[in-house]
Amino acid sequence: MSVQPDPQVVAGLDVWETLPVGQQPQWPDATEVRRVRDRLASLPPLVFAGEADALRAQLAAASRGEAFVLQGGDCAETFAEATADNIRNKIKTILQMAVVLTYGASLPVVKMGRMAGQYAKPRSSDVETRDGVTLPAFRGDIINGFEFTPEARTPDPDRLLEAYHTSASTLNLIRAFTTGGFASLLRVHEWNRGFTANPAYSRYEQLAAEIDRAIRFMAACGADVDALRAVDFYSAHEGLLLDYERPLTRIDSRSGLPYDCSAHFLWIGERTRQLDSGHVDFFSRVQNPLGVKLGPTTTGDDAIALMDRLNPTGEPGRLTFVTRMGAGKVRDLLPALVEKVTADGRPVTWVCDPMHGNGITSASGYKTRRFTDVMDEVAGFFEVHRALGTVPGGLHVELTGDDVTEVLGGTEEIDDEGLARRYETLVDPRLNHQQSLEMAFQVVELLRRA
Ligand SMILES: O=C[C@H](O)[C@H](O)COP(=O)(O)O
Ligand SMILES: C=C(OP(=O)(O)O)C(=O)O
Ligand SMILES: [Mn+2]
User: Fold this and answer.
1) What is the CA radius of gyration of the chain?
2) Strand, coil or helix: what is 79?
3) Gap between the Cα atoms of 368 and 353, Å rounded
4) What are the phi and psi torsion angles at 275 (to 5°)?
5) Which of 169, 205, 265, 355 could be bridged to 236 by S-S, CB 3.0 to 4.6 A?
6) Could you tell me if the CB of 269 is within 6 A of ligand 2?
7) What is the rounded distance in angstroms from the CA atom of residue 55 to the CA atom of residue 41?
């Protein structure tokens, strides 16, 4: 009797274990990790490979300027905050931003949450010291707890299972909201409900009234408005923790090829995108559409080498470059990168992350960002692409649907003192509901000019 080779092994899905893999936890017990990985491998996939293919086609459209990508959600999701209210508010915020962009710029918007799996965080330091006590840094709920005790901060592999189950229930609710009628454009007004009234909120009300009128007009003309009842909404997270991504990678029964079924879209972070890294090797072997974050040290040659590894044949929609240069640098550094990639000829989708290059510490000690810097990087991104005749394909932002006070500025003018009022993030500061809407209205202007 001949033994069939394991197609996952044949696909080289374990090669990453022989390579340098940054930003992984120090698990106290390797046997426990193996047990959890085996359990994860036996659980159902969270997404279907065909959905990842559909997303790839939409990202290809965005690379040509026929759609615009909106990726948004927490810096770090937490298990405790995976509640119906939080998920609903985040979905409503992303839907509101998408509708502002779609209506304002007459472009379809590809909607993706940093949701249902955004649990693993790269950190600048492996440890954190408070009052002379040093413990492992918080690396996200999938690895350890935020509480500053030795017990909480010790990496616990059972958290991978909790991340899987929390992702499954989050995704279930997302699917229910986006296909069950909640996200229907016929309810465009309802998405504003429950949020604090503010200038962006009122502006949205006006726009929703215009959309309502337009839909009634179309319906009166006999158009079938039923197609407006459901929306496509995709999940995305940083593919950081390979002990989680590997067991959720499955061979697609249709094509015989591997897909990472933890999410539709995975990205490789700025800290783990080295060409010889386990991350680049692992993701080069799965079929999902991929992102790579590109910070200010990225050279044109780095970008080309990443294309060689992750999209050698130049398949449209496969590779998204998420640039995060910082407001002060984007106009200087982005042009050379875009020029080099454009000259190569293989397509990429260019997306702007205006968050991660603009971190500051406030006088009161909070890790924050200025809304004006965030918007300035977005403006710089559009200017560079407009000057080069290339396509500004989308936005990648850290946001929440709640009225937190984590980013300075916006029309509500959150100042240094105001940050303390509702600073809730465990890692990076997020735009709140009104700042997110305000961003969408400003981006419409930029898209119209582009
Ligand atoms: O989300 C991004 C990174 O994980 C985060 O900015 C790192 O933050 P740190 O510098 O506080 O570790
Ligand atoms: C870690 C992140 O970003 P980057 O890799 O760009 O620093 C993030 O998106 O939260
Ligand atoms: Mn972040």
Assistant:
1) 21
2) coil
3) 15
4) -65, -30
5) 265
6) yes
7) 24
Tally of CB atoms within 10 A around 7: 13
Span from the CA of 181 to the centroid of ligand 2 (angstroms): 33
Question: Mean pLDDT across the stretch 188-206?
Answer: 86
- Helix (H) / strand (E) element for 332: namely helix 330-344
Q: Decide whether any atom of ligand 2 lies within 6 Å of the 438 Cβ.
A: no
Q: How far apart are CA 400 and CA 44, in angstroms?
A: 29
Burial class (CB within 10 angstroms; exposed 0-12, middle 13-18, buried 19+) of 315: middle
- Ligand number, closest to the Cα atom of 118: 2
Q: What are phi and psi of 83, to 5 degrees?
A: -105, 165
Residue whose CA is at the smallest distance from ligand 2 atom 2: 269
Q: What is the DSSP letter of 67?
A: S
Q: What's the predicted TM-score (pTM) here?
A: 0.97
Quick one: the chain helix, strand, coil %, rounded to 5?
A: 45, 15, 40
Ligand 2 and 122: CB distance under 6 A: yes
Give pLDDT tens digits for 269-302: 999 999 999 999 999 999 999 999 999 999 999 9
Residue 323 DSSP label: E
* ipTM of predicted complex: 0.98
Q: Residue 370 above 80 pLDDT?
A: yes
Q: What is the DSSP letter of 418?
A: G
Amino acid at residue number 84: A
Instruction: Look at residue 5 and tell me whether its pLDDT is greater than 90.
Output: no
Give ligand 1 pocket residues (Cβ under 6 A): 75, 121-124, 356, 427-428
Distance from the CA of 54 to the center of ligand 1, in angstroms?
A: 31
Smallest Cα–Cα separation from 137: which of 271, 277, 23?
23
* CA 426 / ligand 1 centre spacing (Å): 10
Q: Tell how far the Cα of 240 is from the centroid of ligand 2, in angstroms.
A: 10
CATH superfamily of 63-126+157-449: Aldolase class I (3.20.20.70)
Looking from the CA of residue 427, the nearest atom of ligand 2 is 10
Nearest CA to 71 out of 339, 287, 309, 290 is that of: 290
d(C-alpha 272, C-alpha 270), whole Å:
6
pLDDT at 450 over 70: yes
Q: What is the pLDDT of residues 71-128, one digit of tens each?
A: 999 999 999 999 999 999 999 999 999 999 999 999 999 999 999 999 999 999 999 9
Q: How far apart are the first and last CA of the chain?
A: 63
